[in-house]
Amino acid sequence: MAVTRPSPKILVREQVADLKELGLSYSEIGRWFGITKQRVAQLLGTSPNEHFKPVPKLPESKKMLTTVDVASLLGIHPNTVRRWSDRGILKSYRICDRGDRRFVQEDIKLLVKHIAKLKRNRTDKSTFNNIDDVSS
Q: What is the CATH number of domain 64-126?
């Protein structure tokens, strides 16, 4: 009786799995076999961006904004929004394998109100009605 050998695809899949267990990244494994990190992920049945955890689903009633939407609302550059998100200043949710950010519209509205209140307080303290207020 003849012994059948596993196909080369099965051998590659097993080797890829062994290398992943050793702690190699998708990119390193891909370079080893001459394939993309996405193909490595397909062979393993996982995502190449596994460090992005799936986010719990938000209720549909909550309106989500993109990074560009938030930047235009706040009058700042999109990179500033990303930096604030990374630092925890703005609460964001990561979606899809690329890790795109989404922001809850209500959170941004609260932030805009807070900024407006701070600006009002700042301008109220720095304005003088007449010259006597400065000298006292």
A: 1.10.1660.10
